[in-house]
Amino acid sequence: MENNNPQFIPISKIVEEAQDIKTFYFEHSLNSKPGQFIMLWVPEHDQKPFSIAYDDGKSFGLTFFKRGPTTTKLFDMKVGERVGIEGPFGTSFSRKPDTHYIMVAGGYGAAPLGFLAESLLSPPAGGGDARRAEGVGVDFCVGARNKDLVLFKNRIEKIPNTKLHIATDDGSEGHKGYITDILSNLIDSAEKKVLVVTCGPELMEKKILNICNEKNTDCEISIERYMKCGVGICGQCAVDPIGICMCKEGPVVKRELANKITEFGKYHRDKSGKIIYF
Ligand SMILES: Cc1cc2nc3c(=O)[nH]c(=O)nc-3n(C[C@H](O)[C@H](O)[C@H](O)COP(=O)(O)OP(=O)(O)OC[C@H]3O[C@@H](n4cnc5c(N)ncnc54)[C@H](O)[C@@H]3O)c2cc1C
Questions:
Q1: Which of these, 193, 205, 95, 194, lies nearest to 143 by C-alpha position?
Q2: What is the pTM of this model?
Q3: pLDDT > 90: what percent of the chain?
Q4: 68 Cα to the center of ligand 1, angstroms
Q5: More confident residue, 277 or 108
Q6: Which pLDDT tens digit goes with each residue over 210-231?
């Protein structure tokens, strides 16, 4: 059941994942689905969307990169301090039995995809959708600039039926180059129906969409746009040319819908609505 009421809740645990990357945990029942997000309000700062990185039905987690003013303020916060949350909002990744998932993550995209893999293969006892999906296997692909930025390696290695593939730009771990370099082979060698799911930098996601189009493979993509209200009212995250709001009809969209968003992989808009090319 969704609980969209704003809540003002204390941070219960903070984990430092890497330089400038932290996960905050909250003892709060969110009952979210993997791929959904919450709007997080940082007092005296701003409200921003964050993907749900972890949810066992009793507590949930969010993973942040320190980027601008709001996340810089978050980085200074301590256990016990309170933030506002609203949600969960938006669409989620599909949960399909008898499917081979190829998950491709870049940056903090490893967080929601880690939550997806866990919910399919090792659902926690307290989880909202605590059934294990039958006949599912996962290739979990993580791309990062270097080995220190590969997120959640230990977490993903613990998930049953899941094989981790790493690619780093500098070759310090795994394949040297882009994680998309290995995607075609993984699709071709899968023994059952494939679903590619991805969350990460948009140019990576666009390459993945192109590969899935060429191979006519099902694909679901989490598309980020600047979001203000989170519920499809303000229109800030409407995309060209179809005008759907990514906070409501996204962030997770299927291949067919992603193909209709012509700005995908080309440009997005900043908070004033100005077009910014990738
Ligand atoms: C659905 C969704 C899920 C998200 N999940 C996470 C998450 O799990 N972890 C996380 O760290 N961040 C996530 N973000 C981004 C987050 O909402 C903030 O925008 C980001 O953390 C920067 O916030 P800031 O106020 O610190 O910096 P800002 O000053 O707002 O931004 C710093 C820089 O990032 C750019 N930027 C901000 N938002 C976006 C955007 N949506 N798309 C492209 N560029 C942008 C700005 O133009 C600026 O250059 C998500 C965004 C969306 C839409």
A1: 205
A2: 0.93
A3: 85
A4: 8
A5: 277
A6: 999 999 999 999 999 999 999 9
Given the DSSP bridges, would you call strands 60-65 and 21-26 parallel, antiparallel or unpaired? antiparallel
DSSP bridge partners of 162: 138
> Given pLDDT bands bounded at 50, 70 and 90, which one contains residue 128?
very low
Query: Hey, whose CA ends up nearest to atom 50 of ligand 1?
Result: 50
Check pocket membership of 251 for ligand 1, CB cut-off 6 A.
yes
Mean pLDDT throughout 124-153? 80
CA atoms of 41 and 48, how far apart (whole Å): 7
Domain ranges of the chain: 7-89, 93-222, 225-278
Q: Which amino acid is at 93?
A: F
Nearest protein CA to atom 5 of ligand 1, as residue: 50
Cα–Cα distance for residue pair 250/37, rounded to 1 Å: 10
Q: For residue range 24-39, list pLDDT tens digits in order.
A: 999 999 999 999 999 9
Q: Are 129 and 119 in contact (CB under 8 A)?
A: yes
Say yes or no: do domains 7-89 and 93-222 share a fold: no
Nearest alpha carbon to residue 45 among 25, 23, 64, 21: 64
Residue 210 CB contacts under 8 Å (≥ 6 apart), including other chains: none
How do strand 7-10 and strand 194-199 relate by DSSP bridges? Answer: unpaired
Q: What is the architecture of the domain spanning 93-222?
A: 3-Layer(aba) Sandwich (3.40)
52 contacts 59 by C-beta, under 8 angstroms: no
Q: How far is the CA of 70 from the centre of ligand 1 (A)?
A: 9
Q: What kind of architecture, by CATH, is found in domain 7-89?
A: Beta Barrel (2.40)
